[in-house]
Amino acid sequence: MPARQDTGDAAAHRLSARAPSVPSTPPSRVVVVGQGYVGLPLAVRAAQAGHRVVGFDVDKQRVGQLRAGESYVLDVPSARLAPLLASGAYRASTDPADCGGFDIAVITVPTPLREGLPDLSHVAESARTLGVLLRPGAMVVLESTTYPGTTEELVGPILEEVSGLVAGRDFHLGYSPERIDPGNPRWRLENTPKVVSGVNRTSLERVQAFYGSIVDAVVPVTTCRTAELTKLLENTFRHVNIALVNELAMFAHELGVDVWEAIDAASTKPYGYLRFVPGPGVGGHCLPIDPSYLSWWAERTAGRTFRFVELANDVNSHMPDYVVRRLVDALARRGKTVEGSRVLLLGLSYKANTSDARETPSARVAELLLAMGAQVHAADPHVVHPLPAPADALDGVRMVAATPGELAAADSVVLLTDHDAFDYDTIAACSTYVLDCRRRLSGDNIDIL
Fold first, then answer.
1. Is the pLDDT of residue 310 over 90?
2. Which of 99, 286, 430, 437 is the catalytic position?
3. Which residues, in sequence order, are CB contacts of 185 under 8 Å at separation 6+?
4. Is 286 a catalytic residue?
5. pLDDT for the residue numbered 214
6. What gap in Å lies between CA 174 and CA 168, rounded to an integer?
7. Spatial contact of 412 and 341, defined as CB atoms under 8 Å apart
8. What is the residue-wise DSSP string for 211-228?
9. How would you classify residue 347: left for phi > 0, otherwise alpha for psi between -120 and 50, otherwise beta?
10. Is the pLDDT of residue 17 over 50?
11. For the chain, percent of residues with pLDDT exceeding 70
């Protein structure tokens, strides 16, 4: 008899059964610290819901663009931003004084890795900035992805030290992990269920009430640690499964089996299977970085490494190397070497139809090809400038458009990010050879990863 699988509906029922009753939230003065791909959509949505919002960021260029009504985040069109600026419902600032008098503050700053270890300096600095302005009765919520314990062991103590107030008694404190999927037309901030938590019952009620005013559904959990672990679980689940199909794709290629056809066939199973597909690597903040927070936390607290995370990191981080090896073999079959060959990379962002190039595997592919002496051209309709890399390793990349001339002039084309804006018929027709890492093409001149 197959093992019983818990359903999302059943889990939601159990959570709602122990959720506290929540009063409605009147319009509040809200500060959102960090105006990136998480903070800006949150700030704009809160302003649309009737709150008065200050979007705080230390990046003067970003704030200047926002004040001019220019959005740099795909999920927030400039047309959506303009009326909120005009009405005063939303304003952007680099001045901490503009955050004074807040009722609710949400921290949405980056949590990168530094030398393989969690770097919470942005979170700590945000807490210090807010602590100076914190008043009795106000609320602070952390949204940045981090390891379990951060809200109560780092953010709370900083706020208490700077303000002289006590979390859970004098002010409210909670954690609610971001669930932003850039460029997703179906699941947006407002219709994606929001996990919420607080350091005590009253804090949870206030956190739940605030998010209940801006999203369709909230999912309360009993502790901040649970909410923090929830986010890491979601991202690690994807990271491990992507690593599984990436490694499977490498073995299947060596054995002469079509892994994509196998994935299609497996996807017809109506239970017990979720579809993941191979690619040139993982990017963004969620997959290359967040699972490492879980691994670090597990080793620190339990004294053991999280083996699934370590294995997934190893497989996914080496996929760009595998892409280059496949390209080297393909050129060799055509009597060419990488050195001196003209290679056109299609897609620089880590995800289709976005400009987000954080931790993109395309950068590593370009870096390896340049080091091997290739002439590297790159086309991306969403990414305007060459990608950043340590030691200016990508200075040799020439940005071009994916025109028939550029495609025909390349000794090889590598499709890394499958933007809808690319003309795939033209790519297939004009290219001598294509290594397709996303399975968007077919033909005698096409190899699929």
1. no
2. 286
3. none
4. yes
5. 96
6. 9
7. yes
8. HHTTSS-EEE-S-HHHHH
9. left
10. no
11. 91
